[in-house]
Here is the input.
Amino acid sequence: MQFMLLFSRQGKLRLQKWYVPLSDKEKKKITRELVQTVLARKPKMCSFLEWRDLKIVYKRYASLYFCCAIEDQDNELITLEIIHRYVELLDKYFGSVCELDIIFNFEKAYFILDEFLLGGEAQETSKKNVLKAIEQADLLQEVCCSLPSS
Amino acid sequence: MPAVSKGDGMRGLAVFISDIRNCKSKEAEIKRINKELANIRSKFKGDKALDGYSKKKYVCKLLFIFLLGHDIDFGHMEAVNLLSSNKYTEKQIGYLFISVLVNSNSELIRLINNGIKNDLSSRNPTFMCLALHCIANVGSREMAEAFAGEIPRILVAGDTMDSVKQSAALCLLRLYKTSPDLVLMGEWTSRVVHLLNDQHMGVVTAAISLITCLSQKNPDEFKTCVSLAVSRLSRIVSSASTDLQDYTYYFVPAPWLSCKLLRLLQCYPPPEDGAVKGRLVECLETILNKAQEPPKSKKVQHSNAKNAILFEAIALIIHYDSEPNLLVRACNQLGQFLQHRETNLRYLALESMCTLASSEFSHEAVKTHIETVINALKTERDVSVRQRAADLLYAMCDRSNAKQIVAEMLSYLETADYSIREEMVLKVAILAEKYAVDYSWYVDTILNLIRIAGDYVSEEVWYRVIQIVINRDDVQGYAAKTVFEALQAPACHENMVKVGGYILGEFGNLIAGDPRSSPLVQFNLLHSKFHLCSVPTRALLLSAYIKFINLFPETKSTIQEVLRSDSQIRNSDVELQQRAVEYLKLSSIASTDVLATVLEEMPPFPERESSILAKLKKKKGPGAVSSTEQEDGKREGGELNGGGERGADSTIAASNASTPSPSADLLGLRSSGPVSAAPPSAGSLLVDVFSEAGPAAPAAAVNDDGFLRDLEPPTESSDSLLAEGPGDSDSAPPSVVSEDPAPPMPQSDELLHKFVCKSNGVLFENQLLQIGVKSEYRQNLGRMYLFYGNKTSVQFVSFSTSVTYTGELQSQLNVQTKPVEPLVEGGAQVQQVINIECLTDFSDAPLLNIKFRYGGALQNLTLKLPVTVNKFFQPTEMVSHDFFQRWKQLSQPQQEAQKIFKASHGMDKEVLKGKLLGLGMALLENVDPNPENFVCAGVIQTKAQQVGCLLRLEPNAQAQSGEQMYRLTLRSSKDTVSKRLCDLLAEQF
Here is the structure.
């Protein structure tokens, strides 16, 4: 996967994760272009489209669009389920997640994504294991951890 | 699950986010952000050392601001400091900031690497994972240099926690992708491959991505992974849906891992070991079998996960391309999906079948679905699905079904989406050529293509049809006949004219026996298209004409006449002029023998790869053509162009040597002084064009236009300060202000232009005064009502207005004004009637001066009276044929005025139409072959004469510069009219 974008129906970007090095300018350009393209599509249309030399896989959940760019060889359907699993993770963590949770706790959304996907590939697909990792991190919250003296 | 408190203890952050969300406008948001940035900056710079919590909060705010799309240029140091915090959440935020915001050339990278190094060696798995995530997210070369040696060790060490292994594997993958030279697996290779056997499914899932990538680059070193992958896959495929516990997803065991295993196997040929291969074939069969079983869940997630594996298995079957049984089964399975109610599955099935079609084992099986695919092309509502259907039709096409498929694609082209037309055209052209049994079908197809989608037919396509016709003498007569018939259409695409010109020039003799297509008929037909064509096409037609002289000596005098006409031999385009001059000379000097040798029929072209095919290969998907590819395309086109026009061009090339530089040529033209001869004929032509007027008045003023201009009072150029802002002049003492009419206001031209296409509206307004206009025109007479409104509550005294028109205008217009009341009460409006008679055409506007006293101060302002020559237009309706005839008649260079300019008001069709109607001409529908263009006709009624005018406006929404451009052409029997109208109109669009 080359990048993942979350944006609202109004076109507001809520989360962006880039797995390839790109300049800020290029990122903004891509985002603008894709948000426009995806928002223009009708509900019954298929979830995949060709864009530049990449394949775009997107799905809408309530007010949020989840949009992934994958390479030619990658599997579209399994990418749709990557999106779904990420939504499930967010949902479980926040308790029926909504757009506001992601706005106000954006850092958590990034942490959860990092546990699930790393470098654009699935790192851990078990829901239990991902949430366990996040849970452990949350337990460390504000707890002093002494660094090993080296 | 931990209860998540909003903002996670960072109240300040939550408040800030709320504030931003409450901002009503972008400006308010920016203001709030700037305030916050200033606050954070001062906190970071302040003397007081910040505690970790505050630092974390501010860094988090900066991150939020950055993610909103604003630039952040500070805070990096504070983020780096957080890395060494002993509080987990502070460290975590520090890493997040760095992952999102740090670019690789940052000077901080050394400090960051230090932080990472500490965490990697901490032996605390949570910290190690954080550090690995950061490396994977940033993935810079500096990080690869620092850690590429360390991470493989962590990955394979026996005591590394599973979660750390997972992160290490993908971290290494990212580094390998950015700096493959720095990631050396060497001694670790076999241990990495054996991660496929790991107990922990998560470790396998992460490691396999790394292994796949490494296998693609070094297949031999990693080939032991094949048997491991097959046995892992076999275990998953045969497991019950509950065996894998949390790695089962909606009753599908380990779908992600299954897909990745199948993907890894696609890096290798089929396993050589019979047992391994047997086991794998069994797996693939099981996957195909499962597709036929009833679903275990109605959820779309279940079917998606199951079908993801199925499609990946089919991809592997196609990759092997060695198991006919599996290939046919795969094809049947995809055939079922073609009619599935899920759009996603139909899309993928079409896509996947495209690759199946190229396998010899499954090509026939794919072909059985032709009707379904044609139906998809016709009925799918989503253009991306239709695109796939078109691709599949192209892929499944062979000699047996070519006629059907080409016919379907052609009929689809008529309604196809613009985004895919060009590609469709290329595909039709290729199929028609590749599977042509008889070449008359090929010629028909390409001419249809030009007829249906001429704009999308690239140069390559029509060069190719000409190459093929030249090379195959069995089709030449048919081609000449067909193209002759196609040119009969009143509106032909320019590409049709090109093909027609070329083919008739070469093979017109093959149909000349029929009196209905005699040489002269052929020539007249071609020449009737000449004036609407672009310069390159005209050049091609001129070459066709000289070929005609050779083919049909009886056309010689007619064609020489055409070549000799001013519009050819004195054409402003150097290429056209040169061709006309040289062809004329060639035809009059050379003997028949020489002529026959020079203009001999084209020799056959050498066979080479179809240029169209090359072009399609480059076009990877719609809109994916990069700028370099486009350039390549052009270069290729240019090369072919040389080939395609060799016959005609070789004669030019030969004579080019003897021609001096083009500029010398032009000077020669000027010195021969042709211009003086032209105007009289222009005058008489007028009578022919609109056969209503009497003999044209001698166009006395015409030539001396420039001279008379100098006689005008030099008011326009005097940029007196007084002219600016007459509304403010009440501050000046009245005695100083001159009683003479003020020079026209600087904006008077702009105000005048506002009224070119409308007759009513507000002409002028300042704090004191508003001037409204209403006007009506009939024949050469006009009546204008001016309304002067006093916007103040104080009366205007000594109110007077005058219209002046000097110099040339005195002989062109007659304007009568009635005096107005000298007193205008506060809030009142007075009306003035102005009668205008147009004696002959004119270019300048009369000046309207208004003087009054307001509170003792003299107000003195001068505007241009909004009367322009187009006001005296009488619209003329005419049909296409008449229009072109007249257009041709007005083909002398001085009768035409043309401007190419940038659109300054967008290109809305209705707005354009409105403006053109307001201009006063008739807007002619169905005249121009290109429906995007506008053509208009009208007659300017003056007392002395009537001046017929034709207009053509060609919008180009995507000019090369990326700007919207117009080309505006005006032709009229009087050069001053063409020029004036052109100048006026260029300001309107």
About this structure: Confidence is low (pLDDT under 50) at residues 1-7, 620-737 of chain B. The longest strand of chain B covers residues 946-956. Residues 300-320 of chain B form the longest helix (21 residues).
